[in-house]
Design brief:
Oligomer: homodimer
Number of strands of chain A: 8
Strand order of the largest sheet of chain A: 1-8-3-6
Order of helices and strands of chain A: HHEEEEEEHEEHHHHHH
Structural class of chain A: alpha+beta
CATH class of one domain in chain A: Mainly Beta
CATH topology of one domain in chain A: Jelly Rolls
CATH architecture of one domain in chain A: Sandwich
DNA sequence: CTTATTTCTTCACTTAAGTGAACGAGTTAT
DNA sequence: ATAACTCGTTCACTTAAGTGAAGAAATAAG
């Protein structure tokens, strides 16, 4: 499992055995059960997450309704908005599946960064990449209809459709579960 | 006009006269007329923009239709997706109003960063802030109806509604110009 | 194994957005 | 000054999403 992490890191920087040991000694690895809630509305948090295995999701509760905004799967990283803005969280984070994740807090990353300046470089590259991905995602969402979004999902992250309950997918696509059901039925008809 | 920039920078780091002079000597300031297109689909670019004054927008042309995804006004920064991903641009950038903007390219920022490591720190803080803002924007967009989005806009960026043509606003809100017209008419009725 | 609970689909109905066309007001160009 | 555009609004009509309710199927809990 740790190798997954080291492989990922070596995409950005080279890493020595010594550095690997430091990382391991930090006890970053956590195994979390499906349904576990990692962050609740109102909480203060300095934790970032990195998914090695499994799936976690961010959502809001507005007017008593869950609104899912994102899913994070293998090799996805997530720093909740509240951690950056240093305000009480407005969103929830929970595990969609049994997952193995890295949990790091700010103090830890400062420690690592001071010992290994290379990590700073990696984080920077990584967050630039994230920013670009997010930009593109946002643009794609804005410029698409729910149906197009579903087709995009089918193309880009087909696994999600299998792994995630429909009603969570629906709100991720910006519609109600009933509408997603209809949409799928409509598409099946068209095919034939 | 330059003071606008320096004031902005001092929100993040302290800056000496010497450093100011280096910045000025770089000839970053550009005055651009309304309607000027800064970036076209298919172009390669390494340029980032910072708006001192005025308004620029990013949009895509899909099926012959303009889809506006963002407006950038005073003290907003923009690094187009294509610059980060180093691929031909898929989006356009144009001036909504006569504007004064900073244009910087990657080589330049590397030069500045090597001379003044402080700038690196500033860029990092700034991009973290941007990432958080974007995250929040995206979540807000996803969890809102067109009407709520319009109300949000009215609350958070009321100037845009005055400054920007309705049909560009409409696609920014994810709907057609006719729908925005109706939506506004509907809201006026409700008020009375 | 049986009872709950969650999840997904379907239905009838309401509401809002998409579409294509038309019109006037304001701009720009010639 | 006139013609050509752009822009915003309105209208009638179509299509799709929201809503509330109901029921089947799958999962989880006892």
């Amino acid at each position: 499992m740790q190798n997954l992490l080291f492989n990922f890191i070596s995409k950005y920087i080279s890493i020595t055995e010594e550095e690997k040991n430091v990382l391991v000694s930090l006890n970053l690895f956590h195994s979390v059960k499906k349904g576990t809630i990692l962050l609740k509305e109102g909480q203060h948090s300095k934790e970032s997450y990195f998914v090695l295995n499994g799936c976690i999701r961010t959502y809001y509760i507005l007017d008593g309704e869950e609104k899912t905004t994102a899913f994070y799967t293998e090799m996805d990283a997530l720093t909740p908005p509240c951690v950056i803005s240093q305000t009480p969280s407005e969103c929830y984070i929970s595990c969609v599946e049994d997952s193995i994740i890295l949990v790091s807090n700010e103090d830890m990353s400062e420690e690592v960064n001071s010992k290994f300046p290379k990590f700073d470089i990696m984080c920077r590259k990584f967050s630039e990449e994230l920013l670009a991905k997010q930009q593109i995602n946002f643009d794609e969402f804005k410029t698409s209809s729910p149906e197009q979004r579903y087709l995009n999902l089918l193309k880009n992250r087909p696994d999600l459709i299998q792994r995630v309950p429909q009603h969570q997918l629906a709100s991720f696509l910006g519609i109600k579960p009933q509408s997603l059901s209809r949409l799928r039925a409509r598409m099946l008809k068209k095919e034939s």
